[in-house]
Amino acid sequence: MEQLLLPTDIHAFLAGRVLGQEELLRRISVSLYKHIHGLPAPNVLLIGNSGTGKTTLMQAISTLYDGHAELERFRVMIIVNANTLTPEVENEDRATRLFRKLEARARVLHGADLSAGRLKACLENATVCVDEVDKISGRISGKANVEGITTQYALLTLLEGEQFLYRTRVVQDGREVEADIPIDTGRLLFICGGAFEELYDQVYGAIVNRRDDRRLKEVSEVERKADGSVSVRTLVRFKLRDYLRLADLFAYGMMPQFVSRFGSIALLDDLGRDELRQILIGAANSPLRLCLEYFRHMGIRLLVTDGAITAIAEAAAKNSRIGARALREIFNGLIASHEFDPVHSPRYAVTDKGPTLTIDQAAVAEYVGRME
Asked: SS3 breakdown of the chain: % helix, strand, coil, rounded to 5?
């Protein structure tokens, strides 16, 4: 059998696409290694603010499968919003709806005329990514959320690794027939993620109001001043990963049986200035890259100075609850007027390198100042 990727190889691939989440990438790399080798792979639950990279990670895993020929049989992968699992067809349960989505993906990849055996292999090697899983909480605004509870139970059936009898149409002896395909759901890999926004306030509130034995930890920070003197400040920093307990997820509205089916619960760190700067410069879908191409098409050279890039990243880092999305909001807002009429922009000039639009640190400061 051809040698498959090692966890370190998988990590290197993902790290080139997902920035600032080292612990998470290590856990995911091990889960993926076990999955592609047919070993029991722990399902992963991701908890992190919007813009910290949950969806980017899911897309990177799909790219991993697509980019390696030896992983061809694992390419059946879907990314679905948890709320979209609600059946649209009468008498169809949520688990069947999910397998319908997997089957559709399998037929796109391998053709419409699949035998029962071929389809079974496709489905059992699949990866299922469920986004916004926090939206299926059993409670919303203090009231029972029946839809959420029902969806958790449906996913629980699959996460438990039981046999699921899936009825569909396949090709047998050259003709299409209806068949019941037994699927070993224990071979699927589930990666579920959500912002769990109220969870942060819930845990913080429990600590400051002393509802249990947890207490905020103080840390000392040394500050060196310009005159050479040194001062020590005592700070209290709250990071959910330092305080989260499984009981907090239960109180949030996630069923204990559901949460216990995840072998790994990973909390994503909020992205700092340096990570956001890297994303702005290097991400494939970075607004900066897209804008460079836009102005290039108009015959204009866009120059965004290093100081401007750092200033944009610093402004975005202050919006920790939306992470990388803040980059797009700030950059697109900053550049909007220049995109519409660049020639008459005060930042436009004809230089020895041709028509150039320069965005410097002062331009960023002016725009951010108007926002505040």
From this structure: 50, 20, 30
